[in-house]
Please model this.
Amino acid sequence: MDYGRSKGADAVICGHTHLSMKMESDDITYYNTGCWTDMPSTYIVVDEFGNASLREDVYTPNYITEAVAS
Model:
């Protein structure tokens, strides 16, 4: 978050740590998308107004993991 803050960012978005999270401080928000190949699959949606939200999808089959396993 310090790096994003030093660049004047409102948010920092990272991913693939297998742990999704959202952390907020006074002036910056940190999002981690987690892992989209695990279940539940987690991802970030940014709307047309720039509002971001962390989402989970527990219903979509994990085609990538199935393909790698076969």
About this structure: The chain has one domain: 2-69.
